[in-house]
Amino acid sequence: MPESPEVSGLTPRSIEELTQAAVQELEGLSDQESLEAWRVAYLGRRGRLTLMLRGLSQLDLEQRRTTGALANQAKRTLEERLERRTREISEGELARIGLQDSIDVTLPGRPMALGRLHPTTQILREICDAFVAMGFGIVEGPEVEWDHYNFEMLNIPKGHPARDMWNTLWIDYSNEAGEQPMLLRTHTSPMQARVMEASQPPIRVVVPGKCYRYEATDATHEWHFYQVEGLAVDDGITFADLKGTLYEFARRLFGADRKVRFRCDYFPFVEPGVDMSIDCFACDGRGSGCRICRDSGWIEIMGAGMVHPRVLAGVGYDPEKYTGFAFGLGPERIAMLKYGIEDIRLFYSNDLRFLRQF
Ligand code: YSA
Fold first, then answer.
1. pLDDT, tens only, 85-126
2. 187 φ/ψ angles, rounded to the nearest 5 degrees
3. Is 275's C-beta closer than 6 angstroms to any atom of ligand 1?
4. How high is the pLDDT of residue 114?
5. Is 166 a catalytic residue?
6. Per-domain residue ranges of the chain
7. How far is the CA of 336 from the centre of ligand 1 (A)?
């Protein structure tokens, strides 16, 4: 015999009372944790309503039909109320957070972190601008270069002792035509020959670009660094043009008071060859106790000279008709002098404390 409803506690009245008590309790809850505890207590696997529903099976068929419908309705009611209360509480929490942490539209925005130009880029632009203002154009060329342009066309044939001036990084390369000596360019001078081959005088160009040398690094030497090459070729160019142009460049970069000094130097692709120095801007040429010019009063800033007739003839120019001057300088060393940078390795060690100063 199934138990009577009164015995199991499963009567319409008990269901009604349980539902009312649960709803009342639910309305008093105010956070998600207590909602979950409430759910477990009434609707969980061993919850009060769940256990009550399990008693349905003990009722006879007629009672089961009526009481069962009421019990299922009670379960739906509790589930709906729980859902509504959960929504109310989370909306309340959101509103509270919104009030506390709301955006103050009157605050100034956070500035975007802007990048800046690398000091080498800055000095390259400064150097190029000075020459552009004197009528020079800018061209660039390959960093991986043939022996032919890096040396041969510059009057430095194979076996020439002057090759030792440029410690070279060679590249193994061969094609159908056989072995072709290839290298990482040791200077920007190969562009002299490339530019002259590709055009006719008058020529006035500067060539900024990266160079590579098989060299140990120290405070003034990197194994990769930049150079700016310059070339002017025309009918009637003289050494006076070289001096005037480079003097003007020195004044533009280092100040209008600068003096310049030219001394003989040797580069196989010029005749005569010179190095150019400026009087020391740190000690005004006095020299004594100066760290920048090391007591000499002069700072060497570039190599230069009149383009060698053999170089002109090599590209098919008539050396009797055309003359020209060329020069080459190291922008990092110029920046070091200008900004008092003591170690060239700082340029490419990616230390933001250094880079942010420019
Ligand atoms: C000379 C006469 C010309 O008519 C034209 C160009 C030249 C320059 C020549 N091609 C040359 O390479 N000369 S150099 O070996 O003395 O280098 C020129 C400049 O490059 C140096 O004054 C220096 O500023 C820079 N340089 C050379 N080796 C470097 C370096 N900078 C950093 N690290 C190195 N290892």
1. 999 888 887 777 776 667 778 888 888 888 899 999 999 999
2. -160, 170
3. no
4. 86
5. yes
6. 12-100, 120-355
7. 15
